[in-house]
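Following up on my earlier thread - several people asked me to post the actual chain instead of describing it. Fair enough. Here it is, all 304 residues.
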Amino acid sequence: MNWINNVVRPKIQRVFNKKQQTPDNLWHKCSNCGEMIFHRDLEAAMRVCPSCDHHMRLGTKERFASLFDNAEYQIVPVDAVAIDPLKFRDQKKYPDRLKEARSKTGRDDSVTVAHGPLDGVETVIAIEDFSFMGGSLGMAAGEAIIRGAETALEKKAPYVLFAAAGGARMQEGILSLMQMPRTTVSLQLLREASLPFIVVLTDPTTGGVLASYAMLGDIQIAEPKALIGFSGRRVIEQTIREKLPDDFQSAEFQLEHGMIDMIVHRHKMKDTLARIIRLMTHRPRSPRQQSANVPAKVTAQTAS
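Reply from S.P.:
Thanks for posting it. Predicted structure:
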């Protein structure tokens, strides 16, 4: 009797009561319209909702793959910086926060730089990843942006920056704020060398990042409905004591008021960048552009 209760019955119960282990990340819910999207369909759409066209945040690796020809590129190495120079601690020690962010994202810091062919033109691209501590600007991020500018100068290549940040990294204090003038100087060297610097503002781009390198592009592009602004709505309303429009700080509001040059859908980002780069570097249109009959004119209109 004990053998039946202790051995046979548990085995039978395991056979009939075994639950199918289903991954919990097969479906994603659009934060804008609530549509449930199968993960493969969402990846194929570059994380753009097929129902409402909402642009979800795109990872660094996926962004690089969507821009470089055949997803072939080389990561630009960045010199290491001091970790926790201020011995900062709030609810966690700063090194613990860095370790957690690196484990979560698989990246050393918020900015990754790579170079490779974009429609046949050697291009340097820097991507700011919001999933790494809110894309905050610290010493490592500043060093990466500067190294990207130096690489563009070495290769005489255009420099494209995809910005996404909540501002400066408070754990590094004044050392974080120092990256604003440092990056500005490095980008000025690009301008003196007549090399294009193009900025793409993604959701969200705010704070000290917007107050420095994110608004210094020769061409300012934004993704649809991206949040773009220096301070939060409540802070501004309390300061000026006025009610702000509902679409305040959206990419469309910035385009209407002349803060950016164009809004470009993610699916058309590569073609738009390729056209702009060829125009700014005085290169003829590529065979792919000619076959697609892409107009060789840049206007401050929404590309959708």
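The chain has two domains: 23-56, 58-292. That should answer part of your original question.
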